[in-house]
Design a protein that fits this description.
The protein has 138 residues and is an alpha/beta fold. The chain is built from six helices and four strands; from the N terminus they run H-E-H-E-H-E-H-E-H-H. Helix 2 links the parallel strand 1 and strand 2. Helix 1 packs antiparallel against helix 5 and helix 1 packs antiparallel against helix 6.
């Protein structure tokens, strides 16, 4: 069990580091809300993080603004619950119409690793701390 937890912690940490590198290179990441943005900052993801909920703009307007800024690619990192999956699908459709690549690689990998245990992006920092504690206690 401890080895499996250690492996999972390493994989989650690795994908977050890869995400941080992409965002630092200038690829914006889209999250649902402000708490998700704060969580990514805690995980050392620096760069453009765009919140799509509660911003008083439609998805189409948000995608239009992304296109206006000249972005050719956006990383989608919505929550791992049903609503997050719906937002991901809708955003992907809007981005495709705008000819902007939607990168869902990070979402897919994280969902596969933590989707059963975690429902949202904002919980990632706490999840990582708790995972380290479980590794240390075993």
């Amino acid at each position: 069990m401890p080895e499996a937890l250690r492996r999972k912690a390493e994989q989650v940490s690795q994908i977050i580091q890869e995400l941080a590198v992409e965002v630092k290179k200038g690829v914006p990441v889209m999250v649902e809300g402000k708490k998700d943005k704060i969580a990514l900052r805690k995980l050392a993801v620096k760069g453009n993080i765009i919140c799509v909920k509660n911003c008083r703009k439609s998805l189409a307007d948000i995608v239009y603004e992304i296109g206006e800024k000249g972005y050719k690619e956006v990383i989608l990192l919505m929550d791992f619950d049903r609503r997050g999956k719906e937002w991901t699908k809708k955003l992907n459709e809007h981005l495709e119409r705008a000819k902007i690549k939607s990168n869902m690689r990070f979402w897919r990998i994280l969902h596969g690793l933590v989707g059963r245990e975690l429902k949202d992006v904002e919980g990632l920092p706490t999840y990582m701390v708790n995972l380290q504690k479980r590794i240390g206690n075993s």
